[in-house]
Write a structure and sequence with these properties.
- This protein has 8 helices and 7 strands, in the order E-E-E-H-H-H-H-H-E-H-H-E-E-E-H.
- The strands form 2 sheets. Strands 5-4-6-7 form a 4-stranded mixed sheet, with helices on both faces. Strands 1-2-3 form a 3-stranded antiparallel sheet.
- With 206 residues, the protein is α+β, with helices and mostly antiparallel strands.
Length: 206
Amino acid sequence: MTILATGNGRGVLHLSISVPNTTPVPLSDMIATLSNKKKNRLPKILEHASGDKRFKILEAHMKKHQFKQDALIEVLHKAQELFGYLEDDLLLFIAYRLKLPASRVYGVATFYHFFTLKPKGKHTCVVCMGTACYVKGADKVLAAVEDKLKIKAGETTPDGEVSLLTARCIGACGIAPAAVYDGTVTPRQTPESALAKVKGWIGHGN
């Protein structure tokens, strides 16, 4: 990939990005694509957020910071604590609530190594390791899944089927220990129930 900078003689700089075997793509077009994605998906994202307690906790955290745009990094940290990783819809929700361009939120999330974007796996399992979940056996749930999948938290199975993550707290203390399977919060997990779920992902209970 190459980045080309050209001037027009009047002090105006134009940037374009070219990828081998493709035509150059202006940086402005990339930003416009993100903006269109935000516009098209936002109603569905907001509808989903209204029924997910994690979004409510995140919004309360943003309110604590008075929805200030310079609190973006703190908000992203909180989002990752709640969700385990930063998927596209979550980043778009943050951009909307902080009144920031989607491109800026994506840029910050991808720049800092301590943020985790959507895992590579076709399926995701996020085990909550908050205090309430931990004392009720979340560590045993996580250990059972790690042993079955032969991976550690933060990794993806070699076949790309399952990514395993942990979250510091998903705000579901009343249903501890909880896990999130493909975005669905599931209550009162045991090693057996978690294994039953992931076995369905890896085929034939192997």
